[in-house]
Design brief:
243 residues, Spore Coat Polysaccharide Biosynthesis Protein SpsA, Chain A, 2 domains, nine-stranded mixed sheet, two-stranded antiparallel ribbon, 8 helices, globular
Length: 243
């Protein structure tokens, strides 16, 4: 537990769903639902990293822990690195897991799976994916695909991430889940790198790591947690918690 931080970046500025982290889901703010899942994973200290005093207050009111970060970060990765430096200035934490704050249906066991590849190999970063079973997702550019080579049971080594339908030919396609576990040194290196050409072309931040020669391993899991980006997504999340 002491060697792992689970950080949950949360910003109030959302164009499609203003105030998203505080959206009510069956009596609790969405960000609290995510914090509870991180706590349930039982693998590290969960902390919300936010630029909002309202989010900080809501998390603390529900028994959680949060830390204030700057409002001008270009990405969630930069926000969590600031949080790491504040929470652990002496470098005792070995692993950092970045869980997006808009995944209220994520389960603790899913977060747990993200850390396992770092214990099994010398990968710099670990992430998650699931096999695509809905035909329409194969050609949907909003469904990011990971292209990887198998390295063991339910494990891939990532070769590329793309919004295209890939790889070509017969065989499974994998839907990338945007949750990352980093070795501390890897996260520090990642946030020091400038945006890379393929990252900017595909609009996928993880390509920066691959272009810099960093290794990303992928754990395959059973399902994709619901991401909340719109009012319609929020209603779906509420329905899940009612059921």
């Amino acid at each position: 537990m002491n060697e792992t931080l689970i950080l949950i970046p949360a910003r109030m500025a959302s164009t499609r769903l203003p105030g998203k982290p505080l959206a009510d889901i069956e009596g609790k703010p969405m960000i609290v639902r995510v914090w509870e899942a991180a706590l349930a994973a039982g693998i590290g200290r969960p902390v919300v990293a936010t630029d909002s005093e309202e989010v900080l207050a809501a998390v603390e009111a529900n028994g959680g822990e949060a830390v204030m970060t700057r409002a001008d970060h270009p990405s969630g990765s930069d926000r969590i690195w600031e949080a790491v430096e504040k929470i652990d200035p002496h470098g005792k934490v070995e692993f950092i897991i970045n869980v997006q704050g808009d995944l209220p249906t994520i389960e603790g066991k899913t977060i747990m799976e993200s850390l396992k590849p770092l214990h099994e190999s010398d990968a710099d970063i670990a992430t998650l994916a699931t096999q695509i079973v809905i035909e329409s997702e194969r050609d949907n550019p909003n469904v990011v695909k990971v292209i990887g080579t198998p390295i063991g049971e339910n494990r891939l080594r990532a070769l590329y991430f793309t919004r295209c339908t890939a790889p070509y030919g017969e065989g499974p396609l994998y839907h990338h889940i945007g949750l990352y576990a980093y070795r501390r040194q890897a996260l520090e290196k990642f946030v020091s790198l400038p945006p890379s050409p393929l990252e900017m072309r595909e609009r996928l931040e993880q390509l920066r790591a691959l272009e810099a020669g960093m290794r990303i391993d992928v754990a395959l899991v059973d399902a994709v947690p619901l991401g909340v980006d719109t009012p319609e997504d929020l209603e779906k999340a509420r329905a899940i918690f009612v059921n």
